[in-house]
Design brief:
- With 933 residues, the protein is an alpha+beta fold.
- It folds into four domains: 174 residues, Distorted Sandwich (Calcium-transporting ATPase, cytoplasmic transduction domain A), CATH 2.70.150.10; 293 residues, Calcium-transporting ATPase, transmembrane domain, CATH 1.20.1110; 157 residues, HAD superfamily/HAD-like (Rossmann fold, 3-Layer(aba) Sandwich), CATH 3.40.50.1000; 216 residues, Calcium-transporting ATPase, cytoplasmic domain N, CATH 3.40.1110.10.
- The chain has 35 helices and 28 strands.
- The strands form four sheets. Strands 10, 11, 12, 13, 16, 17, 18, 19, 20, 21 and 22 form an eleven-stranded mixed sheet that branches.
Length: 933
C-alpha cells in the first residue's frame, strides 16, 4: 500500500475494526513489536501531515462589524440619516446614526467571541505519547504520530489518535465524550468485529481524546488529525453555517415590509399634495415651493414612519434578557439565541450527564432472599436503605452488611472530599465509575472503604480480567470480631465481585439468615431470577461472594483456579446512572408548554428506555430507535417517522445531526442539549444548541449557543420561559411603535386628502419619535411576562412577528389615533387659519400623551392593564415621566416654541383634549376582549 493509499484508507472508520491484528499490521506496513522505523515515520509525517486538527478561517472583527449593518432596516435608517443631513436637520441625523452605531456596538460586543470548537478539541488530546519506533520505547509529541505507529496505553492516558488495539490487559476506556455511553468500555484486542458496528460497540478500537480509566495496552495508529473521529466531528462543525434564528428572519422580513410600505405611503402623500395644488393652487405659493414643502413633509413622514429605535430596542432587550438568563443559570453566547430558545418546539436531550447525573449509583441490592432499595444522588454518601418501603439499618441485616463490605473491599476506587458548596460537603470519586458506585453504597451504610480496611487490610489480589469477568481481593483479619458469618478461626478472607452468573457458578454455598447454607438448584434459580429482575430495569448488576482462608497461600498459588472456588454467594448490587431528580417535573412543564423532549444517547436501548420511563419521557406507543435502524431509512421516510420517536439509542454524531435535520424538516424549532464531543455537530446544526457547563466538554460549550451553568435540565425550561417572555416583549414594543407610526401616517394622509393644513409639522413628527418611541418601548422590553406564559403552546414557526390579529389591532389603533388627533386639531383650529400653530400644538400634545398612555395598555397582549398592575413596571414610570417632562418643556419653555412650532396651552385646552388623549388606550383595552375569547 502506497503512502497516498494509506492516507485515504485511514479515513475509512468502518474499516480497521473488521480486520485482525495481523491484517491491520500488514496493511499499515508496521510491526506489532518493533513498530515503525524513524525514517518511515518521518516520511509518513511529510506525506500525510501532522496529527492535529485544522481550523477554518475565522471572521475578522471588521467582518463581524459589517454583519451588523446588513439588516434592511438598518440600511433604511442610514439613508434616512443622510437625507436628514441634506435637509439640514443635523440633530435628527445624529440621533439616527447614534442609534445605528449603538446597535452595531452592542451586537459586536455580545457576539465577538469567536468559535473555539477546534481549539477545545485540541485541548482534549494528549501533548505527548509513548511509542515504539526502531524497536525502542520513546516519547514523541502527539502531533508527530502517524498511521502505523505503535503506541503504549496506561491508566490515565488520553488516546492520542484513532487506534486499533494490539494488546489489551484489563483495558477500559471512558468514551462518554464521544459516544455518550455512561460507563467505561471494556476493550479486547483479539476480536474481529462486523464492519457495520457503531462506534460504541467497537471493542477492539480506541479513539482520539478518550480516556484510559483502567488497565493497559498497546495499539497501532490507524487515523490521525482530520481523519480521526474527532477530525470528522471538526469537519462537521465547520461545515455548518450559522443559520438565522426565527427572530432574525422575522425582523428582516419586518424591516423590508416597513421600509417598502413607508416609502410607498410617503410617495403617495407627496403625489396627492402636489396634485391637490395643481387642482387648487394656493395663493402666494409657487409650484416649486409647494413641491419642496411636500417633499420635506413626505421625507419627515418617512423617517417618522420607520421605527428607527426598533433595532436598538431589540438588541438592548436581548442583551438584558441575557443578563436575566445568567441569573437562571443559562449563559448565552449569541444575542439571537435568547429569543430562539423561546421558540423551541422540541428539546433533543443527551442522556448521560444531562437527563442523568453522570454518576453510576447503586439503587437496589439483593441479599438473603430480600430486595433492598437505596436512596441518594450521585457520589454523595448520603442515602438510606429500605426494605418493603421502610427504612432499615444495614448493620442489623447480616447478609446486606456482608454484601456492602464485599463491595467496599473488592474495589480499587475511593471517595474523597473536594471542598464544600452552600455549606454541604462535596465529594469526588477517583477510579472506575462502577466501582465508585459500590464504594458510595457501602459508605451510605457507614462502611467507608479505608475504615473497613483497617480491620481487614488487603494482602493480595487477583485483578479483574475481561475473560474471567470478576475480581478478587484477599484480606487479613485484624479485629476480634469477624462480622462475616464465616468461621471465626479463619485468618484470611477472599472477597469476589463480578458478573452474577459467573460468580454464582463458582459458589457452593450462600449466606442466608446469618448462616452459611448449601446452594441448591432452587436457590440458584431464585438468585438468577433476582438478577433478571434487576436487569429488566436496565440496572448493571454485579454479584458478590466470599471465601474463608485459614492461611494465605504462597504468591505463586494466588491464582483464579486456587482461590475463586467453593465460594459463598452473598448477594447482588444493581446500579444505574440515575435521572436528575429535577428532570421529571421539568419535562412535565415542557410538555404542558407544548414542547416535546426527545432523548438521544449513545447508550444501549434498554438502558435508555428505562431512564426515559422513569422521567415520563417515553410515552405509551412512543418508539425507541437505534442508530442502525436510522441507517435503514432514506431521508423522506425518516422525516415521517421522526415525529413518533421518543428515544434514540446507540447513535453516532452523524445520526444526531440527521435527527435534528429531520425534525427541522417537520417545521420544528429544535433545541439540542449535550455535553460531549459527540454532541458538537448537532449542537451547531440545531436552531439552538445548549451545552452543559459543569460536565460539558469545551468542544460542546464552544459549539453551542447557550451553556447551562448548573447542568440542570430545569434550567433549560426556565430559559425557554425567559425566551418566550423576550419574544412576547418584542411583539409588545413592535405593536406599540408601529401602531403609533401608522397613526402618524394616516393623520398626515387624511389631512392632505381633505385639503386641510397639516396638523403636525415636520419637526413635530421627528420629535414625536424621540420622546414617545424610545424609552417607553425599552420599558416594554423589560416586562416580566404574562403569568400563563408556559401554559401556551409554542407559536407557529412560520407565523410572522406581526400576525393577522396584531395587524388588525395596529389598524384600529391607527384609525383611533387619526380620529382623536384630527378632531382635536379641528377643535383647536376653530375654522380660523390664524389658530394653526395653536391647533398643531394641541394635536401634537394629544398624540404624544395618548401614545405614552397607550404604552401601559401595550404591556400585555391578553391581560387588562389592572390585572398586569399599573405600577408594577417601574421602568415604565420612569420612561413615561421623562417623556412627559420633555413634552411639557417643548410646549411651555418660550424660547423652544419657534423651534418646535408650539404655543402655550391653557387649562381649557387640556380639558378639551383629555377625552381624546385617553381614547386610544381605552380602545386598545377593548380589543383584548376579542383575543381573550
Amino acid at each position: 500500500m502506497s503512502l497516498v493509499e494509506l492516507s485515504s484508507s485511514t479515513n475509512d472508520d468502518a474499516y480497521w475494526h473488521s480486520l485482525s491484528v495481523e491484517d491491520t499490521m500488514e496493511r499499515l506496513h508496521t510491526h506489532h513489536s518493533s513498530g515503525l522505523t524513524s525514517a518511515e515515520a518521518a516520511e509518513r509525517l511529510r506525506t500525510i501531515g501532522y496529527n492535529e486538527l485544522r481550523e477554518a478561517p475565522r471572521p475578522t472583527f471588521w467582518d463581524r462589524l459589517w454583519d451588523q449593518f446588513k439588516d434592511f432596516l438598518i440600511m433604511i435608517l442610514i439613508v434616512a440619516s443622510v437625507i436628514s443631513v441634506l435637509l439640514g436637520d443635523y440633530v435628527e441625523a445624529g440621533a439616527i446614526m447614534a442609534i445605528v452605531i449603538l446597535n452595531a456596538i452592542l451586537g459586536v460586543v455580545q457576539e465577538s467571541r469567536a468559535e473555539e470548537a477546534l481549539a477545545a478539541l485540541k485541548k482534549m488530546t494528549a501533548p505527548e505519547a509513548e511509542v515504539i519506533r526502531d524497536g525502542k520505547q520513546m516519547t514523541v509529541p502527539t502531533r508527530e504520530l502517524v498511521p502505523g505507529d505503535l503506541v503504549l496505553l496506561e491508566t490515565g492516558n488520553y488516546i492520542p489518535a484513532d487506534v486499533r488495539l494490539v494488546e489489551a490487559v484489563n483495558l477500559r476506556i471512558d468514551e462518554a465524550s464521544l459516544t455518550g455511553e455512561s460507563v467505561p468500555v471494556q476493550k479486547r484486542a483479539d476480536t474481529v468485529l462486523d464492519r457495520e458496528l457503531p462506534l460504541g460497540d467497537r471493542k477492539n478500537s480506541g479513539y482520539m481524546g478518550t480516556l484510559v480509566t483502567y488497565g493497559r495496552g498497546r495499539a497501532v495508529v490507524i487515523s490521525t488529525g482530520m481523519n480521526t473521529q474527532f477530525g470528522l466531528i471538526a469537519q462537521m462543525v465547520q461545515s455548518f453555517e450559522n443559520e438565522p434564528t426565527p427572530l432574525q428572519r422575522k425582523l428582516e422580513q419586518l424591516g423590508k415590509t416597513l421600509g417598502i410600505a413607508a416609502l410607498a405611503v410617503c410617495a403617495l402623500v407627496f403625489l396627492i399634495g402636489v396634485i391637490r395644488y395643481l387642482i387648487n393652487p394656493i395663493p402666494g405659493v409657487t409650484l416649486i415651493e409647494e413641491i419642496l414643502d411636500m417633499f420635506i413633509v413626505a421625507i419627515s413622514l418617512a423617517i417618522a414612519a420607520v421605527p428607527e429605535g426598533l433595532p436598538a430596542v431589540v438588541t438592548i432587550c436581548l442583551a438584558l434578557g441575557m443578563q436575566r438568563m445568567v441569573k437562571r443559570h443559562a449563559l448565552l453566547r449569541q444575542l439571537s439565541a435568547v429569543e430562539a430558545l423561546g421558540s423551541s418546539t422540541v428539546i433533543c436531550s443527551d442522556k448521560t450527564g444531562t437527563l442523568t447525573q453522570n454518576a453510576m449509583t447503586v439503587v437496589e441490592t439483593w441479599a438473603e432472599e430480600r430486595t433492598y432499595t437505596v436512596s441518594g444522588d450521585g457520589y454523595s454518601p448520603e442515602g438510606d436503605f429500605y426494605l418493603n418501603g421502610e427504612t432499615i439499618t444495614p448493620s442489623d441485616h447480616k447478609g446486606l452488611s456482608l454484601l456492602l463490605k464485599t463491595l467496599a473491599l473488592c474495589n480499587d476506587s475511593y471517595l474523597e472530599t473536594s471542598g464544600t458548596e452552600k455549606g454541604q460537603r462535596v465529594y469526588r470519586m477517583l477510579g472506575d465509575p462502577t466501582e465508585g458506585a459500590m464504594v458510595v453504597a457501602a459508605a451510605k451504610a457507614g462502611y467507608w472503604r479505608f475504615d473497613v480496611e483497617n480491620d481487614l487490610p488487603r494482602v493480595a489480589e487477583i485483578p479483574f480480567d475481561s475473560e474471567r469477568k470478576r475480581m478478587t481481593t484477599i484480606h487479613e483479619h485484624r479485629s476480634t470480631t469477624n462480622g462475616t458469618m464465616l468461621p471465626s478461626g479463619d485468618k484470611y478472607i477472599g472477597f469476589v465481585k463480578g458478573a452474577p452468573d459467573v460468580v454464582l457458578s463458582l459458589c457452593t454455598h450462600w449466606a442466608c439468615n446469618g448462616q452459611i447454607l448449601p446452594l441448591s438448584d432452587e436457590v440458584r434459580k431464585m438468585i438468577l431470577d433476582a438478577n433478571a429482575e434487576m436487569s429488566s430495569k436496565a440496572l448493571r448488576v454485579l454479584g458478590g461472594a466470599v471465601r474463608n482462608l485459614r492461611e494465605l497461600p504462597p504468591e505463586d498459588q494466588i491464582t483464579s483456579p486456587n482461590i475463586e472456588r467453593d465460594l459463598v454467594f452473598v448477594g447482588l448490587a444493581g446500579m444505574i446512572d440515575p435521572p436528575r431528580p429535577e428532570v421529571k417535573p421539568a419535562i412535565a412543564v415542557a410538555r404542558k408548554a407544548g414542547i416535546k423532549t426527545v432523548m438521544i444517547t449513545g447508550d444501549y436501548p434498554n438502558t435508555a428506555a428505562a431512564v426515559a420511563k422513569q422521567i415520563d419521557l417515553l410515552h405509551p406507543g412512543g418508539k425507541v430507535m437505534t442508530g442502525r435502524e436510522i441507517d435503514e431509512y432514506d431521508d423522506d421516510s425518516f422525516n415521517k417517522i421522526v415525529k413518533n420517536v421518543d428515544v434514540y439509542a446507540r447513535v453516532s454524531p452523524q445520526h444526531k445531526v440527521r435527527i435534528v435535520q429531520a425534525l427541522q424538516a417537520n417545521r420544528h424549532i429544535v433545541s439540542m442539549t449535550g455535553d460531549g464531543v459527540n454532541d458538537a455537530p448537532a449542537l451547531k446544526r440545531a436552531d439552538i444548541g445548549v451545552a452543559m457547563g459543569i460536565t460539558g466538554t469545551d468542544v460542546s460549550k464552544e459549539a453551542a449557543a447557550m451553556v447551562l451553568t448548573d447542568d440542570n435540565y430545569a434550567s433549560i425550561v426556565s430559559a425557554i420561559e425567559e425566551g418566550r417572555i423576550i419574544y412576547s416583549n418584542i411583539r409588545k414594543f413592535v405593536f406599540y411603535l408601529l401602531s403609533a407610526n401608522v397613526g402618524e401616517i394616516l393623520i398626515i394622509f387624511f389631512a392632505i386628502l381633505m385639503g386641510w393644513d397639516l396638523p403636525l409639522t415636520a419637526i413635530q413628527l421627528l420629535v414625536l419619535n424621540l420622546i414617545t418611541d424610545g424609552a417607553p418601548a425599552l420599558a416594554l422590553g423589560l416586562e416580566k411576562g404574562d403569568p400563563d406564559m408556559m401554559d401556551q403552546k409554542p407559536r407557529d414557526p412560520d407565523e410572522p412577528l406581526i400576525n393577522k390579529f396584531m395587524q388588525y389591532r395596529i389598524m384600529i389603533q391607527g384609525v383611533v389615533f387619526t380620529f382623536a388627533v384630527l378632531a382635536v386639531f379641528q377643535i383647536g383650529l376653530k375654522g380660523d387659519p390664524d389658530n394653526l400653530h395653536h391647533a398643531q400644538t394641541m394635536a401634537f400634545a394629544t398624540l404624544s400623551i395618548s401614545e405614552l398612555l397607550r404604552a401601559y395598555s401595550a404591556r400585555s397582549e391578553r391581560y387588562f392593564i389592572h390585572k398586569v398592575g399599573i405600577f408594577s413596571n417601574k421602568f415604565m414610570q420612569y420612561a413615561v415621566l421623562t417623556s412627559f417632562l420633555i413634552l411639557m418643556a417643548i410646549i411651555y419653555i418660550p424660547f423652544l416654541d419657534p423651534i418646535f412650532n408650539t404655543t402655550f396651552l391653557t387649562l381649557k385646552d387640556w380639558l378639551i383634549m383629555l377625552p381624546f388623549i385617553f381614547l386610544p388606550a381605552f380602545v386598545s383595552e377593548l380589543t383584548k376582549l376579542n383575543l381573550r375569547k
